UniProtKB/TrEMBL annotation:
Region span, Disordered: 309-338
Lineage, opening ranks: Bacteria, Bacillati, Actinomycetota, Actinomycetes, Kitasatosporales
Residue ranges, compositional bias (Low complexity): 311-322
Annotated protein name in UniProt: Glucose-6-phosphate dehydrogenase assembly protein OpcA
Domain of life assignment: Bacteria
Protein species of origin: Streptomyces avidinii
Annotated Pfam families: OpcA_G6PD_assem, OpcA_G6PD_C
InterPro entries with a match to the protein in the record: G6PDH_assembly_OpcA (IPR004555), OpcA_G6PD_C (IPR046802), OpcA_G6PD_N (IPR046801)
Glucose-6-phosphate dehydrogenase assembly protein OpcA N-terminal domain boundaries: 51-165
Record domain Glucose-6-phosphate dehydrogenase assembly protein OpcA C-terminal: where: 170-299
């Protein structure tokens, strides 16, 4: 069921949702959290689809905040709120409210969202695209116990990691970090199987891929060893190599789906390591609402320190230029007869 409300307010939206639940015969609320999505019209459809898919695991009230840009000074002065309510099969396993804010109301989105939050339920705020520099200091971000961003969607993802580290607050997280959860689990399990001392590590992946940087910072922070960051054509993160005195531990994924784990003294094995979609990543983040201390430590390690710890490659003697031949000694000049 879909209900459209134009030039409305939060009180009318709440009343319409209650009536809609009664009309479809489900007056009881069985939702576990409120998910606030802050986006624009371009990304609203994909974000809402991912949130609806994730709601099958986490039934929730989804509040989508779409800030509509005003083109003229007069329209910027006029504040208007339009809403679209979805319940039943159109809203996954919960209920959805799409809010379109116009004019001056764009600067006061928190006053519209606050009355729509589920009582006594946690709040998660998600920015699928551009996010403010200070998530916890943002009026909408301040409403949430968890704040989810995706630095992969930024214009300069690696630089965005530095900005996230400077403004980090407990509860912040990043889907670029969530993408490497299977990699971290696989590498940790490999090191648990064999008590090997890692001397150095190499992380290979696409350029400007923040997941690669985060994995490299996690390895450098946890293992306290130099970590090299090398480039490949992708897709995404392609390989991790841990160097030990007994041989290398290599986790290689060339096709974005199936990986190969190589360990010293053991046969190579194939492991499933597919690239997950946004709905799966979001569902994973909604499973925990406490601060992620491991993400904080890795993020604060810093890309600059990672680059400083990268060992410089030794020059290849075969490619080194030959020593120039010594210049011939100047011939003595003959004295002129006077």
């Amino acid at each position: 069921m879909k209900i459209d409300l134009t030039e409305t307010n939060s009180s009318k939206i709440n009343a319409a949702m209650v009536q809609a639940r009664r009309d479809i015969g489900t007056p009881a609320i069985g939702m576990v959290l409120t998910l606030v999505i802050v986006t624009d019209e371009e990304n609203a459809y994909d974000a809402l689809k991912s949130a609806n898919d994730a709601s099958h695991e986490h039934p929730s009230r989804i509040v989508v905040v779409v800030k509509r840009a005003s083109r003229s000074p007069r329209s910027r002065r006029d504040a208007r709120l339009d809403a679209e309510i979805r319940v039943g099969a159109d809203a996954g396993s919960g209920e959805t409210v799409v809010l379109r804010l116009h004019g001056e109301l764009v600067n006061h989105a928190q006053s519209v969202v606050l009355p729509l939050l589920l009582p006594d339920a946690p709040v998660v705020v998600w920015w699928p695209g551009g996010a403010p520099a200070d998530l916890a200091g943002d009026p909408l971000g301040a409403l949430g116990q968890r704040r989810i961003t995706d630095t992969y969607s930024c214009e300069h993802p690696v630089e965005a990691l530095g900005a996230r580290a400077e403004a980090y607050a407990p509860g912040d997280t990043d889907l670029s970090w969530t993408r490497i959860t299977p990699w971290r689990s696989m590498l940790a399990a490999a090191l648990d199987q064999q008590a090997l001392s890692v001397a150095s590590a190499t992380v290979e992946g696409e350029d400007e891929n923040p997941s690669c940087e985060l994995l490299a910072m996690w390895l450098a922070d946890r293992l306290q060893v130099p970590v090299r960051r090398t480039l490949s054509s992708g897709p995404g993160l392609t390989s991790v190599r841990l160097s030990t005195k007994d041989g290398d531990i290599v986790l290689d994924r060339a096709d974005g789906s199936l990986a190969t784990l190589c360990m010293p003294g053991q046969p190579d094995r194939a492991v499933a390591l597919k690239r997950r979609d946004t709905a799966e990543l979001l569902a994973e983040e909604l499973r925990r609402l406490d601060p992620d201390n491991t993400y904080e430590a890795s993020l604060r390690f810093g890309v600059a320190r990672l680059e400083a710890s990268t060992p410089a490659a030794a020059p290849d003697p075969a490619e080194a230029p030959a020593d120039p031949a010594p210049a011939p000694a100047p011939k003595p000049k003959k004295a002129r007869a006077k």
